[in-house]
Design a protein that fits this description.
By secondary structure, the protein is mostly helical. It has a domain at 18-305. Helix content is 53%, strand content 8%. The chain contains 14 helices and 9 strands. The strands form 4 sheets. It has a 3-stranded antiparallel beta sheet with strand order 7-8-9. Helix 3 crosses helix 10. It starts with a helix and ends in a 29-residue tail after the last helix. This is DUF3300 domain-containing protein. Keywords: Signal. Residues 350-368 have a biased composition (Polar residues).
């Protein structure tokens, strides 16, 4: 009986072992439960040491698993195509530019395109947990650096610097030569040191036979042949905001039929659901949300172009109005001068005749004004003078009449104190008797 239980126990362990190795996306494909740190580290382990520009474009491209597979098939059929020339060859394909850019690096497409489940899981994780994916990359780079397996060499430059807009230190990986890219391949169980999550061991995808790599160095990293690129690498990692962006100039130089409009040399990347037919993690709800985000971004870009165009039109209209206003003013001034008999600056007469005309006209106007002023003053003086004469005559008559009245009253006044009020006017007089010494009644 004990032996039977032992056999059953071993059998159950065998059955349970695949469950322990199920990928995180397989366990969460039907819902939107966030992936854990262990699951994220497992996903990004094969690509965390890629140069930032290549890494950013690869993350974008994985969000379109259907087109990623088409690019993988194309690369297999064109094994010699690489670099900017390969991207130009697929220009007629209706693929998202991030997917089309991957044909410049056949090692990447052949190695990872053969793992369609990983591609979809990586893309879904990047869409729903962008910041967490970026943090996972930095976490693994730190482990590789600590283990002594990530350092500058002939293929890459490795630096530690503050993230844009923050004081957080990040590890940046760039090509040693800007126009030559080496794609690394490595065993994650070696380069990252002791793996912290036994339940989620890192994925290891060695390059298929036929793709030449140099001999692995002591750090456990092997490098493919250098690929010359000019504009095929237009992506970048924005570690400060935990997302990826686009170098607009490089992007437009190689994607001539799908240029990005707008100002500035950097543009934030937005996922386009129109290039994806497979389901999203989170189902139709996630697809609808992605479509709304994309539509909003498109409207903002159109508004930006319309605003710029409107601003240009306003400036042009304002300049036109100013020119018309100046021209009208000039014409009015010329007309006024012609009406006054003065030549305009554009029709000057010889020997300063225009200046003499202006001077003569000004002098004549001054004389006319002076005469009018004197005439007005004389009229006012004459009017006042007449008023004063009439007043003086009236006062003189009144004075003579008063004096005559007083003389007549003096000559006719009776004795005893009678008082004549009539005077020379013929009015009746009143005689009042003088008081006697007794009291009057």
């Amino acid at each position: 009986m004990t032996a039977v239980f032992a056999v059953l126990r071993r059998y159950m362990l065998v059955l349970a072992l695949p469950l322990l190795l199920i990928t995180p996306a397989a366990m969460a494909a039907d819902d939107d439960t966030p992936l854990t740190q262990a699951q994220l580290d497992q996903l990004v382990a094969p690509i965390a040491l890629y140069p930032d520009s290549l890494l950013s474009q690869l993350l974008m491209a994985t969000t379109y698993p259907d087109e990623f597979d088409k690019a993988y098939q194309w690369s297999k059929a064109h094994p010699d195509a690489k670099g900017d020339d390969a991207v130009k060859q697929v220009e007629a394909q209706n693929w998202d530019p991030s997917v089309a850019s991957m044909v410049a690096f056949p090692e990447v497409l052949i190695t990872l395109g053969g793992q369609p489940k990983w591609v979809k899981d990586m893309g879904d994780a990047f869409l729903t947990q962008t910041a967490d994916v970026m943090d996972a990359v930095q976490r693994l780079r730190g482990q590789a650096q600590k283990a002594g397996n990530l350092k500058s060499n002939e293929q890459i430059n490795v630096t530690t610097q503050p993230a844009s807009g923050s004081n957080t230190q990040v590890i940046v990986v760039e090509p040693a030569k800007p126009d030559v890219v080496y794609v690394p391949t490595y065993n994650p169980t070696v380069v990252y040191g002791a793996w912290a999550y036994p339940t989620y061991p890192p994925y290891y995808y060695p390059p298929p036979a036929g793709y030449w790599f140099s001999t692995a160095v002591m750090t456990g990293v092997a490098w493919g042949v250098g690929i010359a690129v000019g504009n095929a690498l237009w992506g970048g990692c924005n570690w400060g905001s935990h997302d990826v962006n686009i170098n607009v100039n490089k992007y437009n130089n190689i994607n001539t039929n799908r240029k990005i409009e707008g100002s500035g040399n950097r543009s934030s990347w937005k996922h386009d659901p129109g290039h994806r037919t497979s389901d999203y993690r989170g189902g139709s709800t996630e697809r609808n949300r992605r479509q709304q985000d994309f539509n909003t971004n498109q409207r903002e870009q159109f508004r930006g172009r319309d605003s710029a165009a409107a601003g240009t039109r306003d400036v042009n209209n304002r300049d036109t109005r100013n020119r018309d206003s100046r021209e009208n003013s000039r014409r009015q001034a010329e007309q006024t001068m012609e009406n006054r008999g003065i030549s305009s600056p554009g029709h000057r007469t010889g020997n300063g005749q225009a200046e003499r005309n202006r001077s003569s006209t000004s002098n004549q106007m001054a004389r006319d004004n002076s005469n009018r002023a004197r005439g007005d003053g004389a009229t006012r003086d004459n009017a006042l003078s007449g008023v004063n004469n009439r007043q003086a005559q009236h006062e003189s008559v009144r004075g003579r009449e008063s004096n005559q009245s007083q003389r007549m009253q003096g000559s006719s006044r009776p004795s005893g104190g009678s008082f004549n009020r009539g005077g020379s006017s013929g009015r009746s007089s009143v005689n009042r008797p003088a008081r006697s010494g007794g009291r009057g009644r």
